[in-house]
Amino acid sequence: FALAALLVSSCYAYVLHTFTNAWSPWLDSLIMTFSIMAQFMLMGRRIESWYVWLLVNTIAVPLYASRGLYITAILYLIFWCNAWYGLYQWRREIKAR
Predict the structure, then answer these.
(1) Is the distance from CB of 66 to CB of 76 less than 8 angstroms?
(2) Which of the chain's termini has less CB crowding within 10 Å, N or C?
(3) Contact status, residue 31 vs residue 59, Cβ threshold 8 Å
(4) 48-66 and 70-96 helices cross at what angle (nearest 10)?
(5) What is the distance, to the nearest Å, from the Cα of residue 62 to the centroid of all Cα atoms in its chain?
(6) Angle subtended at Cα 38 by Cα 70 and Cα 16, rounded to the nearest 5 degrees
(7) Are 83 and 57 spatial neighbours (Cβ–Cβ below 8 Å)?
(8) How far apart are CA 60 and CA 4, in angstroms?
(9) Distance of alpha carbon 89 from its chain centroid, rounded?
(10) For position 9, what pLDDT does the model report?
(11) What's the confidence (pLDDT) of residue 1?
(12) Cα-based angle 68, 71, 77 (whole degrees, multiple of 5)
């Protein structure tokens, strides 16, 4: 999954860089592709999806805050907290089994 997401992310970043005036096409493409990957992993009930969500949100919060998108940054900070809580709950459930 990770290699495919990196490949797709690189291609999408190239397109953004070439055809738009995006401020940070590489980070934007990482956020998009790894979010999609994490969602598919979550649908497959893989605990690793929470680590990917943490990575995505860790990249997104400072990116959006640096561009003055404070409400979006706060939303991704809430998502970051949610990912920690989801990881905690899933790990606790696995231990209980």
Answers:
(1) no
(2) C
(3) yes
(4) 170
(5) 13
(6) 60
(7) yes
(8) 20
(9) 19
(10) 92
(11) 74
(12) 105
What would the two tokens of residue 87 be?
């990881």
* Residue at 80: amino acid letter: W
pLDDT at 2: 80
Alpha helices in the chain (DSSP H): 2-19, 25-43, 48-66, 70-96
Q: Residue 53: its pLDDT value, please?
A: 97
* Cα–Cα distance, 56 to 61 (Å, whole number): 9
Low-confidence ranges of the chain (pLDDT < 70): none
CA angle 27-32-36, nearest 5°? 145
Q: How many CA atoms lie within 13 A of 73 on its CB side?
A: 11
User: Which pLDDT belongs to residue 5?
Assistant: 86
pTM over 0.85: yes
Give the C-alpha separation, 36 to 1, whole Å.
Answer: 10
Please tell me the predicted confidence (pLDDT) of residue 83.
98
Q: Which amino acid is at 3?
A: L
Residue pair 53/79 in contact (Cβ under 8 Å)? The answer is: yes
